Amino acid sequence: MNVIEPNDSMQTEKKVLRYIYIYSTAGLLNEKKLTKNQALVKVKFLKSKEMIMPTHPFNSKSYINSTHLKEDEANTFFTGVNNAEGTQIFSFEYVKIENGIKESQSELEGKNITLRGELNEITVEGNMLPRFKLKFIKGEYIIENK
Q: What distance separates the 2 farthest-apart alpha carbons in the chain?
């Protein structure tokens, strides 16, 4: 997966900015500055678009700003995305890796994982702590520090 493009097509940047838009909207949703419906209306145009998510550490013992394997779905990473303090939940993200996850959980533990994929489903869940549930298909991953 190429992170920086040799030309100025801005395709990589667009994929990152789409995700940042969802992340920003999730913050407003969690702060209750947007209703669930308002937040969903703001982001639903991004369905079927490719995105690159921020890098998170693989940590099978934490759900705060970390990635791990989804236990009941093969070849799927799960990331819990929070604010920096871990006091707000912005989204639960599921990325189905198209060519499969090659490493075991123990091989991934402590490594930084960057995910990308096509947004297949976006919903809002939770009442006290409203958040997005994002499901990506055609996923790819990079292990940042092997």
A: 45
- Read off the DSSP letter of residue 96: E
Beta carbons within 8 Å of 72's beta carbon, 6+ residues apart: none
β-strand partners of 38: none
- Which residues on neighbouring strands pair with residue 50, listed in sequence order? 118
DSSP code for 4: S
Q: How far apart are CA 62 and CA 58, in angstroms?
A: 9
Residue whose tokens read 């493009």 = 5
The per-residue DSSP string of 52-84 comes to EPPPEEB-TT--SSEEEE-TTSTTEEEEEEE-T
pLDDT in tens, 6-33: 566 788 899 999 999 999 999 999 999 9
Cα 122-34-70 angle, rounded to 5 deg: 30
Q: State how far the Cα of 62 lies from the Cα of 65, in Å rounded to an integer.
A: 8
Residue carrying the six token digits 């940590």 = 59
Q: What is the pTM of this model?
A: 0.90
Could you tell me the end-to-end alpha-carbon distance of the chain, in angstroms, rounded to an integer?
15
